[in-house]
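For concreteness, we quote verbatim a single protein encoded this way:
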Amino acid sequence: MTPTPTCSWCARTHTGGPERCLVGVLLVCGGRDYADRARVWQVLDRTARRVEITAVRHGAATGADSLAGEWAVARGYTPDPCPADWYPARLGYTSAPIRYSLEPDNELTR
C-alpha cells in the first residue's frame, strides 16, 4: 500500500493539490424560495471533492438553507444550523444593525 503523501503546501497528509488544503465549515446561504435541490446538491458535491468540510453551516430557513441541511445529513457531514434572531423584542427595533455588528464575534464564541 502506497502511503498518502504529505502536502508541501500545508504539511498535512492528504492526496490532491493545494485545493485539498482547504478545511473548515462550509457556509451555505440562499433564498427562502430557492427550490432547485438537484443544483444545490450538485454544487455541494463538487465543493466536497475539493474541500475538507468539518460542518455545514446554514441559516435554518426554508429554501437553500434547508436543502444544504438535507445534503449535509445525507452525506454524513455535521449540520450546523444558525437561525437568525429576527425578533426585535430582545434587541429592540435596531435589532438588524446590532445583529450584523455581532456576526463576526459569533464565530469566535462557537
Observations:
- The radius of gyration is 17 Å.
- Residues 105-110 have pLDDT under 50 and may be disordered.
- The beta strands are 23-28, 52-58, 79-81.
- The chain is about 40% helix and 15% strand.
